[in-house]
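haha ok so turns out i had the wrong file open the whole time. this is the CORRECT one, sorry everyone. sequence first:
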Amino acid sequence: MCGEFLMITEFQIRECGACGHRFAEWQPQADHVAAVYGDKYLFGGGAGYPDYLSEGKILREHGRRYARLIGPYIQPGSMLDVGAASGFLCDGFRSEGWRPEALEPNGTMARYGRDALHLTFHTGTLEAFAGTRKYDLISMIQVLGHFTNLRCSLQKAADLTHERGFWLIETWNNRSLTARALGKHWHEYNPPSVLNYFSRRSLELFASQFGFHRVAGGHPRKNIMWRHARSLLDHQIPWRLFHQITGLIPDNTVLPYPSQDLLWTLFQKRT
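then structure:
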């Protein structure tokens, strides 16, 4: 049974009492993806990124780290990275022997990935993806929270996965110390950009409904540029003194992201 959890502006966020999943009760418009994840999201700061392309080094290393992390469970093969943005994560996987393809709704990012990184890019959403080939691995790094139709997206991902293939998912942890301490000011309570907020239990229950079981997981080691972190904090926390203090830190400073705020899980498809 789902009950009220909190209000964020006009958005009602509800919580499932059984599994701890939280979601924004809201019906997106047909142009939602184009409106919310346009170039402003990737270069305009606020709830998005002040300059996504400046984070290439961090994101490539994150891809390499994940490729090594899942190495004991799956050999490099074909993969589809959903919500790939410019493809930096794919580039990291490629350097570890994977054959990545990227799926991204933003045309500017897809063009950059094709032209600058020479990756195979499909432009569009997972729900509308018309590809029929199957992949050894589908990666969904920081993308599940953005799906407007979670079940439709996961069904498509399941259809695109080989028997005994894998999903690699990274998402925010709504049971983290940060989430509990900040309450409604937690930076991921940010509809209409982020619509789903997972606990470990709810993530595993969703995956099981589409035929996947957990193989490995934990809290990922991850870095973030201070320029990006400050943009998120300034967007969520309306304290003037806080903004003045954070303005003293150089934008290019690389900081460790609080790992307990995130979950990573490797799921395998049952035969």
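Residues 13 and 237 are 19 Å apart (CA to CA).
again sry for the mixup
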